[in-house]
C-alpha cells in the first residue's frame, strides 16, 4: 500500500506492529536514512539492538547470500518484542530476493524494512510494496519539514517553550539546511538552553545557527545596500578568488534589491513586506533587510534595480570591459545612492 506524505509522519512516530514490511525510498539519502532510523527506533524500542531484535543486512551482503533475509525474518531471539530485518540501499536487482522473503512472511515474523534511492513507478520493488495488503511503500520527497515535523523535533529535544519569533526563525532554518544539519542544530539548541528558565528566543536561535554557505555574497550585497562602499573592494576580491562569477553576483544583487523593493512597497510596512516575500528571507538577514528597505524607500530601490538590470545586460553582451570591474562599479554606485 502507498503511504501518503500526510499520513507517513504519524506512522513513523507510532508504527503498527504486525506489518510485513515497509519500503522507504527517495532521492535524498539523508532524508531516507533519518526516516528509517525513526521508524526502526519506534518499532523495536531503545533496547532493540542490544537485545538483538534488529538485524542489519547491507544490500551487497544480500546479493552474495540471498538466504540472509529469509533467515533474519524467521529467526527467533531470546528477548520478547517486535523484531526488524533491515535491508539498506536496495535496488531492483534484489527485488526477487526481497519479495520471496515477504511472500513467506507469517504472523510473528520480523518486519522487513527496506531503504532505496529513487525508484520509478515501474520499479519491481516499488510495485510489490505498493500492491501488498500488509506492507507500505513510502516516498520521501525533498520538501522542507512541515510544522508538525518541526514541532516533533523540538519536543524530542525537550524544547517546549518557543517564542513565536524564534519559531519563525527555526522554520526558516528548516528550509535553509538539509535534514541532518537541521536536526544537529536543534540538538545544539537544546544543549544551549540547558538550565535556562525562559523560552527560546531569536537570539538563542541565532547563537547556534550555522553560518550561511553564501555568507560572503550576502555580505557584499549588505555592504552595497548599507552604503559601505569602502568594504566592497576586499569583499569582491575574496569572492572572485572563490570562483564566484560576475553574472551570478549580478543575479544575486537583483534578487536582493527586488526583495527590498517588495518590502518597501508593502502597504503594511517593510517588516510585513519582508515576511510575505517568497522564497522567505533567511532569518539572520530579515531585520537587517527591513532596515535597508526603510532607508532606501520604494522610489530609490526602483532606480537601483534599473542600474542592476543595465549592468546585467552589459555583462551578457559582447562588452570587452572586465566583468568583475563592471559589477564592482555598479555596487559602488548603489552604495552611494542611499546617501544622495
From TrEMBL:
Its EC number is 2.7.7.7. The keyword S-adenosyl-L-methionine does not apply. InterPro entries: DNA_pol3_clamp-load_cplx_C, DNA_polIII_delta. It comes from the Bacteria. It catalyses: DNA(n) + a 2'-deoxyribonucleoside 5'-triphosphate = DNA(n+1) + diphosphate. GO terms for biological process: DNA-templated DNA replication. One of its GO terms (cellular component) is DNA polymerase III complex. Keywords: DNA replication, DNA-directed DNA polymerase, Nucleotidyltransferase, Transferase. GO terms for molecular function: DNA binding; DNA-directed DNA polymerase activity. PANTHER family: DNA POLYMERASE III SUBUNIT DELTA (PTHR34388). Belongs to the DNA polymerase HolA subunit family. This is DNA-directed DNA polymerase.
